[in-house]
Write a structure and sequence with these properties.
Length: about 200
């Protein structure tokens, strides 16, 4: 039992290292592909008692999902910029309505980010729009899970920014593990529905 725990813990640290390397080498333009690859490995670590080939699985997912995950990541960044400036402007000028709109927009972007890359790692489909639609549905139907995954994100941010920067070597891996753990139950009832929707479109 202790040996298995140690192996999984080392796998999480290794995934964290791979995420940092692939994100930094891509000047964070590759953060989307790195994040989807991280979750691909995390689901395997959580769902199997067998040894996981971390490097092989990570690199395979990184290559397979590179273009789509990178495109979505860049779109999220582009959308985040005006929301940020809207929030700052409305806060400085006492425009409460715009503050609320900015906060809601930021929430939607963050929760979409949290759900999208695990979904991309777990589900394989040619229908990109169907995947995005499914992510939006899941991200707005599971409020209790949203609270837990947002809490996981806040937890690792606190570790890095307010405890010690050295936690960066494990923070992303911990975040990936926690989010994958919380989302695995959410994905189960959607898996069959997702596949049925794709079949109706004649893609499978």
């Amino acid at each position: 039992m202790l040996k298995d725990f140690y192996k999984k813990a080392m796998d999480v640290v290794f995934v964290n290292f791979l995420w940092l390397i692939t994100s930094l080498l891509g000047v964070f333009l590759t953060l989307g592909a790195a994040t989807s690859a991280m979750f691909c490995v995390m689901f395997k670590i959580i769902n199997t008692d067998e040894s996981t080939s971390v490097l092989k699985e990570y690199w395979k997912s990184f290559k397979e999902n590179f273009w789509f995950s990178t495109l979505v990541w860049l779109l999220l960044v582009i959308l985040a910029v005006p929301i940020y400036f809207m929030y700052i402007y409305s806060l400085n000028n006492g425009l409460d309505i715009l503050v609320i709109i900015a906060v809601i927009g930021a929430y939607q972007l963050i929760i979409f980010f949290i759900y999208f890359f695990p979904t991309l790692a777990l589900f394989k489909t040619e229908s990109r729009w169907q995947m995005i639609k499914s992510v939006l549905i899941m991200a707005n139907k599971n409020l209790w899970t949203n609270f837990k995954v947002l809490g996981s994100l806040v937890f690792v941010i606190i570790l890095v920014l307010y405890v010690h920067i050295s936690f960066l070597v494990v923070a992303v891996g911990i975040y990936g593990f926690l989010v994958a753990f919380h989302l695995k139950e959410v994905f189960r009832p959607y898996l069959k529905q997702f596949e049925d929707d794709i079949e109706e479109e004649g893609i499978l």
